[in-house]
Amino acid sequence: MKAADFQPGFPGELVEAAFTERIGNADRIAKGLAFVPNPLPPADLNPVEFIGRVYEELDRAKTNLVKLDTSISALPEPKIILSAMITREAQSSSKIENTFASLKEIAVAELKPEQSRNETLEVIRNRHAIELALKSSLPMSRALICEMHKTLITDRSKRPGQLRDIQVCIGDEHRGFSEARFVPPPPTHIAATFEAWERFVRTERTEASGAMRWPELIQLAFSHYQFETIHPFSDGNGRLGRAIVNLTPVRQGWLNNPVCNLSEWVQQNRQEYYDRLLRVSTHGEWEGWVRFFCRAISEQALLDFQRVDRINKLWDKYIRLITAKKRSSLLGQLLEQLFTWPVVSIPQAAERLGISYTAAQRHVEFLVELGVLKQLGKDRVNKVFIAGKILDAIRGQGED
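^ that's the sequence the OP posted. Answer follows.
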């Protein structure tokens, strides 16, 4: 990263930084520049003019989000939809960081973590971090994000739950610090920039001064850029930053459900995503970034609306099947749990339903007869069953 990369008026300052590089078997200190972003909101943007320029994308994104949010709230069992969406978001967000696990692997890993790949367990921790934040009483804040980080990261060398104390750089590690694509703030600047970010995120919608507030989605686009730019942790920044997009609207009360997903669409447009973020830092191109962000939110909402429809239709079909057979209401509870997590064993079903092993076995075998469940593998003792059609509904046709 060089000073010449940054055009006049870029939204920050360049400061000296030192980075420890590993060359062969020895460490060496490389010196260069790091970027420290200015506090939000951008001081050189006129809100009225800016909103007018991006209004079409902004309005479309908000309309699609509200439509999705309302449709889920109107469902008789919204939690089965939301659980599926959170899993999909965690999977896609991890993919952006080159951590790959299929939905089938993720589902099985929750039941058999000891037999699962590390990559799959990483995705599950990503999901758990989102779920933790949704249940927490903490506001959107440094404290909440540090709690999420502790859930997401288990490697002690990466300081779970603590801000980084080393300089990092983004780019090809083989080309070294001097050729880094981007260098976030030095550790000495992280606390102050993160505190400024928190103040911006937690600012009330109406100010005593009467100054105009930015629309929620634009504020969200600004805050996501800023978090990724600060890069406050040694690892997990991208996944946390995208989770914050999902969580903030619920925390701030302008959506009822965590439906503001970013990752699945961004994963398909990853290079543009990185380029747009970088161009804000180097050229102050806020407009291009906000347009991209709104387009991502809007198109992802449409994808999720289709997902909601698929899952809800399958739920209705299965409920009609078991109702027609006049089976125990416990079967409906088991079905609900399968939509939340589409893999089950007989001991697990017995524990969750509070019934005997034999009774749970009858319920599981009945769902196998109906085609809801299918045994995974050929194990005669520790049988595991998977709801394949539920997985299909979550991921969409033709996806892994």
